[in-house]
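Researcher: Let's walk through a ligand-bound prediction step by step. First, I give you the protein sequence. Second, the SMILES string for NAP. Third, you return the three-dimensional complex as structure tokens. Ready?
Model: Ready.
Researcher: Here are steps one and two:
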Amino acid sequence: MSAILLTGASGFIGQALARRLASDDHRLRLATRSPLPGCPDGAEVFHFAGLDPATDWTAALTGIEVVVHCAGRAHVMAETAANPLAEFRRINTDATARLASQAVQAGVRRFVLVSTVKVCGERTRPGTSFTADTTPVPADPYAISKLDAERAVRALGASGGMEVVIVRPPLVYGPGVRANFLRLMRWIDHGLPLPLAGIDNRRSLVALDNLADLLARCIDHPAAANQILYASDGEDLSTPELLRRIGMALGKPARLFRAPAWLLGSGARLLGQRALIDRLYASLQVDIRPTRRLLAWSPPCTVDVALERTVEHFRARKQH
Ligand SMILES: NC(=O)c1ccc[n+]([C@@H]2O[C@H](COP(=O)([O-])OP(=O)(O)OC[C@H]3O[C@@H](n4cnc5c(N)ncnc54)[C@H](OP(=O)(O)O)[C@@H]3O)[C@@H](O)[C@H]2O)c1
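Model: Step three, the predicted complex:
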């Protein structure tokens, strides 16, 4: 049992992780700027104004052994910042470095940073995966800010004697998933014919329950110290296979047909869906063999079970 400060406790991943850590009997302090939709029994809540390079974490860090930093500026669909990179850096890099630096001063033993595969880029070549040794090539301001955060926290940990664990998840799906994954579920649920049958790629995804399980393992496993770890379900699917599996979970077979890539590209551009289609075409795989070996971990939940849980929540939300 550890005393844990969890940030981002109001978010998609943070809520699931808070429930998981509470059920593991850890002593939890949840840092949030928003009202929490649900707070596990026994958890303490630390309210703060928002992530900022000047935030004072002293009170939040008192008595804490492990920080899990899940809060971050992510999923920005309609950017309003005049300088997106500066805003991503302020919140994801500088505010994170501030938290890590004060964690060192407070004598925190371990800092677990929820980063992203995007620090390495948006795609992998067929048959290859991102590993801890891949040279990072972040492609957008979000990914740049997360890579800078990784580097800052590792440097602070190394100089201050605090263990650092970097976890890089790919797309996370599960009950309450939003953005592109939700859009795919809606398309299939509406019975929309999708011209995606011909895509021959592989993508790693991670179910919320699998990621929460891995992060829970990172709290206290000795071998996690100072590692960069990837997370996934351990079953990488092609886009058409993923759509078929979502269809099976929904009880509505995905209606897939083949279309030439050029036609799909032009159609997607016309409909303003170019970025999504590029993503659906590309491969993006991560290597979780070191994660499995080091932590004696395997994803506890299969893709099909995770999709059933995701769909169950999607249906319940539709009825409201
Ligand atoms: N979901 C994915 O597919 C995925 C994949 C890879 C990595 N990640 C990483 O996982 C972490 C959590 O992602 P998520 O999917 O759970 O995102 P989310 O649902 O948007 O949650 C983000 C969390 O960060 C908090 N936050 C954001 N900006 C803040 C600010 N300026 N001050 C204080 N709190 C702030 C949010 O608080 P409010 O509720 O107050 O806004 C929320 O608790 C992020 O660091 C993200 O980079 C996510």
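Researcher: And what stands out?
Model: The CA atoms of residues 123 and 284 lie 5 Å apart. Residues 84-105 form the longest helix (22 residues).
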